[in-house]
Structures are given as structure tokens and as C-alpha cells.
Amino acid sequence: MSMTDYYGDNKAQIDGALVIGRSNNLDPEGDRLNEVSPRGVEMPQREFFTVRNVRFYNFNWNSAAALGTCSHCTAPEDLGGRTSTIEKLWFDEATVTKRIMWNFPGRAILYDLDGSTTGKGPNSWATPYFPHND
Asked: How far apart are CA 81 and CA 83, in angstroms?
């Protein structure tokens, strides 16, 4: 078995998950969730990660978001953008106010196979905004 057998599209993935940011099952005395801004799924620092068939609920406070990008990409020697593939994601419109939080330094690329996240149709891309891309 070669190293390429462990590396490539669809090897590391989340498929068929339910992700809830906040529930009624919190201890009201110890609810520190109001002080943070979690992400439902944090994309990795590497290529070839796929998230599909995932439903997101209750990300509607502070800067909480369904997706976060590029975990641990703040090292000065880490200069590239990472591409993750997303497909068939569903967001509860009433309780998910932010779909994507672009973590610093904003080098992530999301390839949306069906357009369910971007709303731009199949095979669309989501990247953080930089004026030089206009």
C-alpha cells in the first residue's frame, strides 16, 4: 500500500451529521456559552476534507457559525489556502445566522458541489473577501 492510498478526495470526511450549536439542555447557572462563538464544523489545516449531508441548527449568537475555516493556519510558515469540499449542507434559516466564519488569516477555499451553502449553484466556490479579487 502506498502513501497515496491514505491521501486524496473523500478520505477524511463528515457525512450524515446533525450539528446543534445550542440546546435547551444547558445549566442556566453555568451557561458560559454566551461568552463564546463556536463553529459547528471546523475545517482542517490540510486539503481533501469533505463535509456532506449535514444539518445545522442554533448558531445565532455572538459570532457563532455553522462552519469555521482552516484550523491552526496562523503559523507564519503556513502560506497556502486549503480547499475543502462541501455538499448537501442544510442550515435552519431561523437559527443559523452565519454559515461561514473565515478564521484568521482567511486562506480557506470551500468548493460547494451542489450550491447548498453558497446559493450560487453547483460547482461554486466560497472564499473570504479580499479587494484584489474584484
From this structure: 7
Decide if 64 is inside a domain. Answer: yes
- How large is the C-alpha radius of gyration of the chain? 16
Residue 115 domain boundaries: 7-18+37-133
Pairing of strands 100-101, 82-91: unpaired
Cis peptide before 128 (omega within 30 of 0): no
User: For residue 128, which of 69, 63, 65, 50 has the smallest C-alpha distance?
Assistant: 69
Distance CA 4, CA 10 (A): 13
What pTM value is reported for the model? 0.84
Per DSSP, the three-state class of 80 is: coil
- Is residue 82 a part of any domain in this protein? yes
pLDDT (tens digit per residue) in 67-122 = 998 766 666 666 667 889 999 999 999 999 999 999 877 778 999 999 999 999 99
- Look at residue 27 and tell me if it is in a domain: no
Give the chain's domain count.
Answer: 1
